Protein backbone atom coordinates (compact mmCIF):
# COMPACT_ATOMS: atom_id res chain seq x y z
CA UNK A 1 0.00 0.00 0.00
CA UNK A 2 1.43 3.38 -1.03
CA UNK A 3 1.04 5.86 1.81
CA UNK A 4 -0.63 9.08 0.57
CA UNK A 5 0.35 12.54 1.74
CA UNK A 6 -3.18 13.37 2.91
CA UNK A 7 -4.85 11.83 6.00
CA UNK A 8 -6.41 8.45 5.29
CA UNK A 9 -8.12 5.50 6.97
CA UNK A 10 -6.27 2.19 6.85
CA UNK A 11 -8.53 -0.85 6.39
CA UNK A 12 -6.97 -4.07 7.66
CA UNK A 13 -8.18 -7.55 6.71
CA UNK A 14 -8.49 -9.78 9.77
CA UNK A 15 -8.26 -13.44 8.85
CA UNK A 16 -10.02 -14.96 5.85
CA UNK A 17 -11.87 -11.97 4.43
CA UNK A 18 -12.27 -11.43 0.70
CA UNK A 19 -10.07 -8.60 -0.64
CA UNK A 20 -12.93 -7.65 -2.96
CA UNK A 21 -15.31 -7.22 -0.01
CA UNK A 22 -12.75 -5.09 1.83
CA UNK A 23 -12.27 -2.95 -1.27
CA UNK A 24 -16.03 -2.37 -1.50
CA UNK A 25 -16.26 -1.46 2.20
CA UNK A 26 -13.31 0.92 1.81
CA UNK A 27 -14.99 2.54 -1.19
CA UNK A 28 -18.23 3.03 0.74
CA UNK A 29 -16.47 4.49 3.78
CA UNK A 30 -14.49 6.89 1.61
CA UNK A 31 -17.63 8.00 -0.22
CA UNK A 32 -19.57 8.62 2.99
CA UNK A 33 -16.80 10.36 4.95
CA UNK A 34 -14.96 12.14 2.16
CA UNK A 35 -11.72 10.69 3.51
CA UNK A 36 -9.51 8.22 1.64
CA UNK A 37 -9.80 4.63 2.89
CA UNK A 38 -7.03 2.30 1.70
CA UNK A 39 -6.86 -1.48 2.11
CA UNK A 40 -3.64 -2.60 3.76
CA UNK A 41 -1.59 -5.20 1.93
CA UNK A 42 -1.12 -7.49 4.92
CA UNK A 43 -3.57 -9.70 6.81
CA UNK A 44 -3.90 -9.71 10.60
CA UNK A 45 -4.54 -13.21 12.05
CA UNK A 46 -7.45 -13.34 14.55
CA UNK A 47 -6.40 -16.52 16.39
CA UNK A 48 -4.93 -14.73 19.41
CA UNK A 49 -8.36 -13.23 20.18
CA UNK A 50 -10.21 -16.58 20.16
CA UNK A 51 -11.96 -17.62 23.38
CA UNK A 52 -12.34 -21.40 23.54
CA UNK A 53 -14.99 -21.29 26.25
CA UNK A 54 -17.30 -19.09 24.20
CA UNK A 55 -16.26 -20.24 20.75
CA UNK A 56 -16.00 -16.60 19.66
CA UNK A 57 -13.34 -13.95 19.11
CA UNK A 58 -12.96 -11.05 21.55
CA UNK A 59 -13.38 -7.74 19.72
CA UNK A 60 -11.55 -5.82 22.46
CA UNK A 61 -8.41 -7.91 21.95
CA UNK A 62 -8.56 -7.26 18.23
CA UNK A 63 -8.86 -3.53 18.90
CA UNK A 64 -5.77 -3.65 21.08
CA UNK A 65 -3.76 -5.13 18.22
CA UNK A 66 -5.16 -2.65 15.69
CA UNK A 67 -4.18 0.28 17.93
CA UNK A 68 -0.53 -0.73 17.57
CA UNK A 69 -0.55 -0.09 13.83
CA UNK A 70 1.04 3.19 12.82
CA UNK A 71 -0.47 3.84 9.41
CA UNK A 72 -3.49 6.08 8.88
CA UNK A 73 -5.33 8.55 11.09
CA UNK A 74 -7.78 5.70 11.75
CA UNK A 75 -7.46 1.92 11.52
CA UNK A 76 -10.52 -0.16 10.61
CA UNK A 77 -10.32 -3.93 10.98
CA UNK A 78 -12.73 -6.08 8.94
CA UNK A 79 -13.19 -9.67 10.10
CA UNK A 80 -15.50 -12.58 9.31
CA UNK A 81 -15.62 -14.24 12.73
CA UNK A 82 -18.18 -14.16 15.53
CA UNK A 83 -17.26 -11.27 17.86
CA UNK A 84 -18.13 -10.79 21.51
CA UNK A 85 -17.45 -8.60 24.51
CA UNK A 86 -17.58 -10.02 28.05
CA UNK A 87 -20.89 -8.29 28.89
CA UNK A 88 -22.54 -9.03 25.54
CA UNK A 89 -23.57 -12.23 23.80
CA UNK A 90 -22.21 -10.84 20.54
CA UNK A 91 -21.29 -7.57 18.85
CA UNK A 92 -21.37 -6.47 15.23
CA UNK A 93 -18.34 -4.30 15.92
CA UNK A 94 -16.51 -2.21 18.48
CA UNK A 95 -14.59 1.06 18.53
CA UNK A 96 -12.60 3.23 20.88
CA UNK A 97 -14.55 6.44 21.41
CA UNK A 98 -12.33 9.27 20.20
CA UNK A 99 -9.53 6.78 19.54
CA UNK A 100 -7.82 5.46 16.42
CA UNK A 101 -9.15 1.93 16.07
CA UNK A 102 -12.41 0.22 15.13
CA UNK A 103 -13.37 -3.31 14.12
CA UNK A 104 -16.43 -4.82 12.41
CA UNK A 105 -17.29 -8.38 11.43
CA UNK A 106 -19.28 -9.75 8.51
CA UNK A 107 -20.28 -12.89 10.41
CA UNK A 108 -23.61 -11.84 11.94
CA UNK A 109 -24.38 -9.54 9.04
CA UNK A 110 -24.94 -12.57 6.80
CA UNK A 111 -28.46 -13.86 6.18
CA UNK A 112 -27.21 -17.46 6.42
CA UNK A 113 -26.55 -17.04 10.16
CA UNK A 114 -30.32 -16.70 10.59
CA UNK A 115 -31.23 -19.64 8.35
CA UNK A 116 -32.03 -17.48 5.32
CA UNK A 117 -30.62 -17.61 1.76
CA UNK A 118 -27.29 -15.87 1.30
CA UNK A 119 -27.47 -12.29 0.02
CA UNK A 120 -23.92 -10.94 -0.56
CA UNK A 121 -25.20 -7.53 -1.61
CA UNK A 122 -27.15 -7.08 1.62
CA UNK A 123 -24.18 -8.28 3.69
CA UNK A 124 -21.96 -5.71 2.01
CA UNK A 125 -24.48 -2.93 2.58
CA UNK A 126 -24.70 -3.80 6.27
CA UNK A 127 -20.91 -3.96 6.54
CA UNK A 128 -20.58 -0.48 5.08
CA UNK A 129 -23.09 0.91 7.58
CA UNK A 130 -21.41 -0.85 10.50
CA UNK A 131 -18.01 0.45 9.42
CA UNK A 132 -19.43 3.97 9.23
CA UNK A 133 -20.97 3.54 12.69
CA UNK A 134 -17.80 2.35 14.39
CA UNK A 135 -15.60 4.92 12.65
CA UNK A 136 -18.10 7.56 13.74
CA UNK A 137 -17.34 6.63 17.34
CA UNK A 138 -13.62 7.11 16.73
CA UNK A 139 -14.41 10.64 15.54
CA UNK A 140 -16.28 11.35 18.77
CA UNK A 141 -19.89 10.61 17.77
CA UNK A 142 -22.20 8.91 20.28
CA UNK A 143 -25.38 7.01 19.44
CA UNK A 144 -27.99 8.97 17.52
CA UNK A 145 -31.74 8.96 18.37
CA UNK A 146 -32.62 8.98 14.64
CA UNK A 147 -33.22 5.33 13.67
CA UNK A 148 -32.49 6.08 10.00
CA UNK A 149 -28.97 7.28 10.86
CA UNK A 150 -26.14 4.71 10.85
CA UNK A 151 -25.07 6.10 14.25
CA UNK A 152 -28.30 4.83 15.83
CA UNK A 153 -27.73 2.06 18.40
CA UNK A 154 -28.80 -1.32 17.00
CA UNK A 155 -29.12 -4.80 18.44
CA UNK A 156 -30.30 -6.63 15.33
CA UNK A 157 -29.72 -6.62 11.59
CA UNK A 158 -33.28 -5.41 11.05
CA UNK A 159 -32.32 -2.17 12.77
CA UNK A 160 -29.18 -1.90 10.66
CA UNK A 161 -31.37 -2.22 7.56
CA UNK A 162 -33.48 0.76 8.66
CA UNK A 163 -30.53 3.11 8.17
CA UNK A 164 -30.66 4.98 4.89
CA UNK A 165 -26.90 4.79 4.35
CA UNK A 166 -25.74 8.34 5.00
CA UNK A 167 -25.42 10.07 8.35
CA UNK A 168 -28.23 12.34 9.50
CA UNK A 169 -27.69 16.08 9.22
CA UNK A 170 -26.56 16.50 12.84
CA UNK A 171 -24.11 13.58 12.84
CA UNK A 172 -22.87 14.49 9.38
CA UNK A 173 -22.07 18.04 10.49
CA UNK A 174 -20.27 16.86 13.61
CA UNK A 175 -18.15 14.26 11.86
CA UNK A 176 -17.27 16.68 9.05
CA UNK A 177 -16.05 19.14 11.66
CA UNK A 178 -14.04 16.42 13.37
CA UNK A 179 -12.47 15.24 10.10
CA UNK A 180 -11.51 18.80 9.16
CA UNK A 181 -9.72 19.06 12.48
CA UNK A 182 -7.92 15.73 12.29
CA UNK A 183 -4.14 15.94 12.44
CA UNK A 184 -1.40 13.66 11.26
CA UNK A 185 -1.31 11.83 14.59
CA UNK A 186 -5.00 10.99 14.37
CA UNK A 187 -6.16 13.32 17.13
CA UNK A 188 -9.52 14.97 16.66
CA UNK A 189 -10.35 18.57 17.41
CA UNK A 190 -13.23 18.90 19.87
CA UNK A 191 -16.48 19.10 17.92
CA UNK A 192 -19.27 21.50 18.77
CA UNK A 193 -21.46 20.27 21.65
CA UNK A 194 -24.80 18.71 20.85
CA UNK A 195 -27.98 20.72 21.54
CA UNK A 196 -29.52 19.99 24.99
CA UNK A 197 -32.65 18.43 23.45
CA UNK A 198 -30.55 15.99 21.42
CA UNK A 199 -28.45 15.12 24.46
CA UNK A 200 -31.58 14.28 26.45
CA UNK A 201 -32.94 12.01 23.71
CA UNK A 202 -29.68 10.11 23.41
CA UNK A 203 -28.84 9.94 27.12
CA UNK A 204 -29.17 6.17 27.46
CA UNK A 205 -27.17 5.52 24.31
CA UNK A 206 -24.50 7.96 25.42
CA UNK A 207 -23.92 5.90 28.56
CA UNK A 208 -22.61 3.10 26.33
CA UNK A 209 -21.32 5.01 23.29
CA UNK A 210 -19.23 2.31 21.65
CA UNK A 211 -21.19 -0.87 22.34
CA UNK A 212 -23.39 -2.43 19.68
CA UNK A 213 -24.59 -5.93 20.31
CA UNK A 214 -26.97 -8.27 22.06
CA UNK A 215 -27.06 -8.18 25.90
CA UNK A 216 -26.40 -11.43 27.71
CA UNK A 217 -29.52 -13.57 27.89
CA UNK A 218 -31.39 -11.90 25.02
CA UNK A 219 -32.05 -14.09 22.01
CA UNK A 220 -31.18 -12.44 18.69
CA UNK A 221 -34.22 -11.78 16.56
CA UNK A 222 -34.61 -13.32 13.12
CA UNK A 223 -34.04 -10.78 10.35
CA UNK A 224 -36.62 -9.89 7.76
CA UNK A 225 -35.79 -10.66 4.15
CA UNK A 226 -36.72 -7.45 2.26
CA UNK A 227 -33.89 -5.06 1.49
CA UNK A 228 -34.01 -1.42 2.44
CA UNK A 229 -32.66 0.52 -0.56
CA UNK A 230 -29.51 2.56 -0.04
CA UNK A 231 -30.22 6.21 -0.65
From TrEMBL:
Coiled coil: none annotated. SUPFAM superfamilies: Metalloproteases ('zincins'), catalytic domain. Keywords: Hydrolase, Metal-binding, Metalloprotease, Protease, Zinc. Residues 211-231 are annotated as: Disordered. It holds the Pfam family Peptidase_M54. One of its GO terms (biological process) is proteolysis. The keyword rRNA processing does not apply. Its cofactor is Zn(2+). One of its GO terms (molecular function) is metallopeptidase activity. It comes from the Bacteria. This is Peptidase M54. The lineage of its organism: Bacteria, Candidatus Handelsmaniibacteriota.
Amino acid sequence: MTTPALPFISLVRIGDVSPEVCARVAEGVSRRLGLACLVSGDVAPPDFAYDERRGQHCSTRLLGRLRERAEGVRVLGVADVDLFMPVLTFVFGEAILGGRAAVVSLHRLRQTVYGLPDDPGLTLLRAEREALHELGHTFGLVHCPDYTCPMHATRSVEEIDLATGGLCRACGARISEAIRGVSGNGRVRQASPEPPSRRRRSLLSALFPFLKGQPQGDAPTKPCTPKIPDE
